Amino acid sequence: ILDGPLGDLNDNEPSAKVDDSATAIPESLRSIIGSSMDQLPWKTLLPGVKECKFGEIDGCASSLLWVRAGRAMPSHTHHGTELTLVLRGGFKDEDGHYVAGDVAFADGDIDHKPVADEGEDCICFAVTAGRLQLTGPVGRWFAPFIR
After folding, report:
1. Cα(135)–Cα(111) distance, rounded to whole angstroms?
2. E strand or H helix at 138, and its extent?
3. What is the three-state SS of 58-93?
4. Staple 104 to which of 17, 26, 33, 84, CB 3.0 to 4.6 Å?
5. Across the strands, what pairs with 55?
6. What digits encode the pLDDT tens for the residues 10-27?
7. In this structure, are strands 96-99 and 103-106 parallel, antiparallel, or unpaired?
8. Biggest distance spanned by C-alpha atoms of the chain
9. Does the CA dihedral 59-63-69-75 come out positive or negative?
10. C-alpha span between 64 and 67 (Å, rounded)
């Protein structure tokens, strides 16, 4: 996490505040996210990864994901599809490198482990149809505890 409004680089978790001026939120998402991301009920998924769920939109789960710079998500695949819009920072996985404004597509044919870029936290809006399936050894161990 960057010094200043986002917190201290020594923190293990993303800060509870987001500098909205540095995050491009499309107007169409403002009705879902609201006026400020620092007021959202972020929940820690694992060290360095937080999520804010918004519920279903047209039968798909929607959420914001906040991944600390340099952190990896667990390896996973999808029972259905996932569209991820990068709002801030970037990430890379087996299919490419995605930065602010890019949309990544994943489905059951893709088993990936997204990693946030170094130097800036990655904030994404994700819409999923179907559930995730953790595929790495640690993920398979934790899978029964994650819903």
Report:
1. 8
2. helix 137-142
3. CCEEEEEEEECCCCECCCEEEEEEEEEEEEECEEEE
4. 84
5. 62
6. 345 555 455 555 566 888
7. unpaired
8. 40
9. negative
10. 10
Closest by CA to 88, choosing from 120, 41, 132, is 120
Contact 98, 126 (CB under 8 A): no
Residue among 97, 98, 84, 88 at smallest CA distance from 126: 84
Query: pLDDT (tens digit, 9 = 90+) per residue, 50-94?
Result: 999 998 888 899 999 999 999 998 888 888 889 999 999 999 998
The pTM is what? Answer: 0.77
CA distance 19 to 32: 18
Q: Which helix (H) or strand (E) holds 119?
A: none
Q: How far apart are CA 13 and CA 44, in angstroms?
A: 8
Q: What is the pLDDT of residue 139?
A: 59
CB 93, CB 84: distance < 8 Å:
no
